[in-house]
From TrEMBL:
The lineage of its organism: Eukaryota, Sar, Stramenopiles, Ochrophyta, Eustigmatophyceae. Residues 572-582 have a biased composition (Basic and acidic residues). Coiled coil: none annotated. Residues 1-21 have a biased composition (Polar residues). It comes from Nannochloropsis salina CCMP1776. This is Condensation domain-containing protein. Residues 1-25, 297-322, 371-392, 450-472, 556-582 are annotated as: Disordered.
C-alpha cells in the first residue's frame, strides 16, 4: 500500500497506478458518459474556455499558516495518487460519420469517441500545473478591476464585509476558466490570501473544476482530505513521527469511477420503457405550459451598425443579448446558526425538510422580482395569458432541484459481481466524480407572494398553535408558505416513487446518443425568447459538511435537512426491475454535532456555483451548512438580472428564511 511520510512525498510500494489501469498512459480508462460529455463542452470564446465550470470557495481559519506551499503540494500529491480524475484528461472529437441527417447521430459511426486518459505528467507536475497562490485585497484596499476589451463584464463585485474577500476571483472564474482538456489536469486550486492586517489567518481555497470530473460532494471530499492531510503532515513534522495510533490518511488509490449512466442504469442502459415515456410526457407538458423564464423589464436594446452599402439588403441584427455578452454574477449570504436552528425546528414540527423550505423561499422571492414590480418595465413571459385570482395575477414557475445520484447508484450485488455487499455502491463512498443529477417541477403562484409574509426576523419557531397571536394576514401568508413547502417535499417523493430518477438519466442518455444535443443547447442559448433559460429558479443543497469528507443526507439533494437524516433507498431488486421505485424509509437525528476543525485550522464556510451564462436558471441558489451556519451562494445571468436586482433578491430570500 502507499505510505505518507512526514518529510517526503507519498511513496508507492504497490504496483504503479498506471499498471493497475492496464498501462494507463497508453490506454484510456473509459469513454465519457452522456452527462460528462455535456458538462465538458467548451465555450464559443475559445478552444480552452469552459462553458460550465464548477467553482467552490472554502474559507479556512489558518492562524498558524499551515496552508503554505510546501505542505499543500505534498498533500495534493497524495490526493492526485488517490483520485484518478485529478490526473485525467479528455481526448477525442466525438465525430460521427455516415449519419443520415445533419444533427442526428443515430445511424452513423462514432469514429473518435471522447475518452478519459491519464495525463502525461508526473504527480508533481500535475500539482504544479494546478496550484497557485494569490494575494487579494480586502474591502479597504485598492482593487484592480481591469476589464477585457469590449466592456462585456458586469460591474465588479462590491463586498459588504471581508468574509467574502474571495468574491472577485470566484465570480470571474465562472466565465473565464481556461483548461486544455486534452493535456490536463482538469482542475485548479487557487489559495487566496487577504493582504495586509486584515488577513487575520483567514484563507480561501478556490477550487475550479471541469464539471465533468466533479460535483459538490466530490469537492467536499477534496476539501476534507486536503485539510486533514496537511494537518497530519504538520503534526508529524512537529513530533518527528506520525501521531501514535493514527494511520496516514487517504493513501489507498481508487478505481476510476463509473459514469452516471453506468452506475444508475447498468445493463438497462438504452432500454426505453413505459416509465420512460411517462417521464418524457411529463417534461413535454412542462415545455408547453406558459412559464415565467425572464424578468419583466427591458434589458439594454441592440443598436445595429450602419450599413456599408445603402442599396444592399438591411443588416440582420445578431441575437438579442447573445450568450457571449452574458456573465454569471454572484451574491453571498450567511444564515447564522441561531436562525438556522429555528428554521430546522419549524421544518421538523411540520414534517418537511430545510431543502423544501429553501425551494419555497426561492419561489416566493421569484414571484416578488420576476414581474417588474422591483425591476421596472414589463414584457409578458413566453406564451403568458394573465389570469387574475385571489392574491393577484398567477404565473407558472419551473424549479430545478439538484440531486445526488450516489443515493441511486447500483451496487455490486445488482451487477452480479463478487466481493461486494448489497450496500457497496459502484461509486466509492469518497469518489471524486460527476454524480449530480436533477429533477424539476412546476408551481403556480400569484405575483408578490413574498409580500404576504412579515419580512422581519421574528419567528416563534414552534408549532402552528404558537402563532395564534399573529395578525390574520401574516398568519395566512405563513400558512400558505408551509403549504407550498409541503408541496415541494411531495414533488420530490412522488418523483422518486414513480421511478423517474433512473428514467431521467435514461432519457437524457438516449437524447445524447440520438441527436447533437450540444448543438441544441447552443441554439437555445441564443434564442431571444428565452436566452437559454430553461427554468425560473433552482436550488442545490449539499447538506451538512460533517468533517469526514461527506455531506450528510442526500448531499446536493432534496432531503438535506439539518436535523433529520432522510435516506432514499431501493426496496429490493424486483423494484429496480419494475422501474426502480424509490421510497423514503427512515429519518434519524444525528447523534453528534458535525465538526469542521483540523488541528489549528477550522473550516468556516463553503460557497459554490456553476456558470449560468449560457443556459440554466434565471435565479439559482447553491448552499450548504458548515460550522453551524448556512452558506448561501446566489448566482444569476447578467445582464438579464441586474446587480441591483440580484442583491435585493438575495436579501429577500434571507428575510423569508428568517421570518417563517
Amino acid at each position: 500500500m502507499n505510505t505518507l511520510s512526514a518529510d517526503s512525498k507519498p511513496t508507492t510500494v504497490s504496483p504503479p497506478i498506471s499498471e493497475q489501469f492496464q498501462e494507463g498512459h497508453r490506454k484510456s480508462w473509459r469513454q465519457l458518459g452522456s452527462f460528462e460529455t455535456l458538462l465538458s463542452r467548451k465555450a464559443a470564446a475559445g478552444p480552452q474556455r469552459l462553458s460550465i465550470p464548477h467553482v467552490c470557495a472554502a474559507v479556512v481559519d489558518d492562524g498558524k499558516d499551515l496552508l503554505e506551499p510546501h505542505l499543500v503540494k505534498r498533500a495534493l500529491s497524495a490526493l492526485v495518487q488517490r483520485h484518478p480524475k485529478l490526473r485525467a484528461c479528455i481526448r477525442g472529437t466525438r465525430k460521427v460519420d455516415g449519419a443520415p441527417i445533419k444533427g442526428v447521430r443515430r445511424g452513423g459511426k462514432e469514429v473518435d469517441p471522447l475518452a478519459w486518459w491519464p495525463c502525461a505528467m508526473t504527480d508533481g507536475e500535475v500539482v504544479n500545473n494546478a496550484l497557485s497562490y494569490v494575494d487579494v485585497p480586502t474591502s479597504g484596499d485598492a482593487v484592480d478591476v481591469s476589464l477585457q476589451p469590449g466592456g462585456s463584464h458586469p460591474p465588479p463585485f462590491e463586498w459588504e464585509d471581508d468574509r467574502f474577500f474571495f468574491a472577485y476571483h470566484f465570480q470571474r472564474a465562472l466565465d473565464e476558466t481556461d483548461m486544455d482538456t486534452s493535456r490536463g489536469p482538469l482542475w485548479r486550486l487557487k489559495v487566496l490570501r487577504p493582504m495586509g492586517a486584515r488577513r487575520e489567518g483567514r484563507i480561501a481555497l478556490l477550487f475550479l473544476f471541469n464539471h465533468a470530473i466533479s460535483d459538490q460532494t466530490s469537492c467536499n471530499t477534496l476539501i476534507h482530505e486536503l485539510l486533514d492531510t496537511v494537518e497530519y503532515i504538520h503534526s508529524s513534522c512537529l513530533d518527528h513521527q506520525p501521531t501514535p495510533g493514527r494511520p496516514a490518511p487517504f493513501v489507498i488509490p481508487q478505481a476510476f469511477p463509473p459514469s452516471i449512466e453506468e452506475a444508475v442504469l447498468g445493463p438497462t442502459r438504452g432500454t426505453l420503457s413505459l416509465t420512460t415515456l411517462l417521464y418524457a410526457s411529463r417534461e413535454a407538458l412542462f415545455g408547453i405550459l406558459p412559464t415565467t423564464l425572464l424578468p419583466r423589464f427591458p434589458p439594454p436594446s441592440y443598436t445595429p451598425r450602419p450599413r456599408v452599402d445603402p442599396e444592399g439588403p438591411p443588416e440582420r441584427p445578431p441575437p438579442f443579448l447573445p450568450a457571449a455578452t452574458r456573465r454569471t454574477i454572484c451574491e453571498f449570504r450567511t444564515l447564522d446558526s441561531d436562525s438556522l436552528s429555528m428554521l430546522r425546528a419549524a421544518c421538523k414540527s411540520r414534517g418537511v425538510t430545510v431543502t423544501a423550505a429553501l425551494c419555497a423561499a426561492m419561489l416566493y422571492a421569484t414571484s416578488d422580482f420576476a414581474h417588474g414590480q422591483d425591476g421596472g418595465g414589463g414584457r409578458p413571459e413566453r406564451g403568458h395569458k394573465q389570469q387574475k385570482g385571489r392574491g393577484g395575477t398567477y404565473h407558472n414557475y419551473r424549479l430545478l432541484l439538484s440531486l445526488n445520484m450516489r443515493a441511486f447508484g447500483r451496487s455490486r450485488k445488482d451487477e452480479g459481481r463478487e466481493g461486494g455487499g448489497e450496500e457497496e455502491k459502484m461509486w466509492a463512498e469518497h469518489a471524486v466524480a460527476s454524480a449530480a443529477g436533477a429533477m424539476d417541477f412546476m408551481v403556480r403562484l400569484p405575483e408578490q407572494r413574498g409580500s404576504t409574509l412579515s419580512l422581519r426576523p421574528e419567528r416563534t419557531g414552534g408549532s402552528e398553535e404558537a402563532n395564534d397571536g399573529m395578525e390574520d394576514g401574516v398568519w395566512e401568508g405563513k400558512r400558505d408558505f408551509w403549504a407550498l413547502t409541503k408541496r415541494c417535499r411531495r414533488e420530490l417523493v412522488d418523483f422518486i416513487e414513480a421511478g423517474f430518477v433512473a428514467e431521467s438519466v435514461q432519457l437524457f442518455d438516449w437524447g445524447m446518443q440520438t441527436i447533437e444535443l450540444n448543438d441544441v443547447v447552443e441554439k437555445e442559448a441564443e434564442n431571444p425568447q428565452t436566452f437559454g433559460r430553461a427554468y425560473t429558479c433552482g436550488v442545490s443543497n449539499m447538506g451538512i459538511f460533517d468533517g469526514t469528507g461527506r455531506s450528510r443526507l442526500l448531499a446536493e439533494g432534496p432531503n438535506s435537512d439539518g436535523s433529520a437524516s432522510v435516506h432514499a433507498r431501493c426496496q429490493n431488486g424486483e423494484d429496480r426491475e419494475s422501474g426502480e421505485r424509490m421510497r423514503v424509509i427512515e429519518a434519524s437525528t444525528p447523534s453528534a454535532a458535525p465538526t469542521a476543525a483540523y488541528g489549528p485550522m477550522r473550516l468556516r464556510g463553503i460557497y459554490y456555483a456553476t456558470s449560468h451564462s449560457l443556459t440554466g436558471s434565471l435565479y439559482q441558489l447553491s448552499c450548504g451548512t458548515v460550522d453551524g451556519a448556512l452558506c448561501l451562494t446566489f448566482h444569476f445571468p447578467w445582464p438579464l438580472v441586474p446587480r441591483s436586482m440580484a442583491r435585493c433578491f438575495a436579501n429577500r430570500v434571507l428575510q423569508i428564511l428568517q421570518c417563517v
